[in-house]
Amino acid sequence: MTSGRIFLSAIAIALATACAHAQPYPSSDIHLISGFAPGSGADVMVRYFAEKLRLITGRTTVVENKPGANGNIAIEYTARSKPDGYTILVHAGSGIAGNQHLFRKPPVDAAKQLRVAATINRQAFMLTVTPDQPYKSVAELVAAMKAKGDKASYGSNSVQSKIAGALFRKAAGLQAVEVQYKSGPDTLREQQGGAIDYAFHDPQLASVQAKQGRLRLLAVASGTRMKMAPDLGTLAESGFPQFNLVGWFAATVSSGTPEPVVRQINAWFNEILATDESREFLNNFGSDVWISTPEDAQAFFLQDIRTWGENVKLADIEPQ
To answer: Is residue 227 part of a domain?
Structure first.
């Protein structure tokens, strides 16, 4: 056998071996990464999709909670994971985008190291107070906070709540002090205990707490009203036209994940989102369903990174 034939034979054997060992996706457990504390509103949403994925794929779906650092722990873990589709971050795409500008040295370059496979929803953070406070409108809250001067305070626990709080403080001419917490439940507990005057909460937590009579919703931070809360006015309607902060959740994987796998993940999530059950679930958690293609999802993600950079500058937030 000539050397050329030996070489071609070796390639054929290698290809045959590779094909024999190739396994269809998915062929093992799928891990959904949650950047939130167990039991928080957003974590409940992650677990909802984990269960739905289990039913569709027939594979075990494991939720791994990695809260902290504005979601950066979960984001970095996902970005550095093997690009095979078995590690999926269900997280706020807007939060990932904002982190690129809130930190001088973000742990990952999101535009290069992450790929959004599917969008999930659109949502707007909600300006809230507690029911025992006298404020029934944004105007009443602003007047009271101006009177308190630098004794006024508000809570934050995420990229979006931090930026929303800073923009509101600047737009309203307040001297309120930001108090940072690890999670939404932590912020809520301190707010209900009277430690802070107001807070911007994610709609998952805010809408549930409002229905239970534990929070009063004053406005949403989006430019237009949300379908899930059509009677709740916007900050723009309350005299702050510059407010148009829309958050969104997505299923994100590490860059380099094979395109067929990305498309499969997109198809799974779109199938879940197309059901009336999921629409009702997301509406009850304060958000509107958002179905998209992988291409549109990634394009929006890259644009959102630029948008949140502009928001950080407008809020006069110094990167940490």
So the answer is: no
Q: How many Cβ atoms sit within 10 Å of the Cβ of residue 266?
A: 21
Q: What's CA 260's distance to the chain center, in Å?
A: 24
In tens, the pLDDT along 210-253 reads 999 999 999 999 888 888 788 999 999 999 988 888 889 999 99
Q: Is pLDDT of 204 > 90? A: no
Burial label for 73, CB within 10 Å (0-12, 13-18, 19+), is middle
Is 236 strand, coil or helix? coil
Residue 144 belongs to domain spanning: 126-220
Domain boundary among 183, 202, 220: 220
Structure-model confidence comparison of residues 248 and 207, the more confident one: 248
Q: Where are the beta strands (DSSP E) in 160-282?
A: 177-180, 198-201, 216-220, 247-254
Report d(CA 169, CA 300) in Å as an integer: 28
CB atoms within 10 A of CB 112: 9
| Side chain identity, residue 66 | K
Q: Is 98 found in the same domain as 144? A: no
Nearest residue to 307 (alpha-carbon basis) of 202, 90, 160: 160
CATH number of the domain bearing residue 143? 3.40.190.10
> Rounded to two decimals, what is the model's pTM?
0.78
User: What's the angle, vertex CA 249, arms to CA 167 and CA 262, rounded to 5?
Assistant: 140
Q: Do 285 and 307 sit in the same domain of this protein?
A: yes
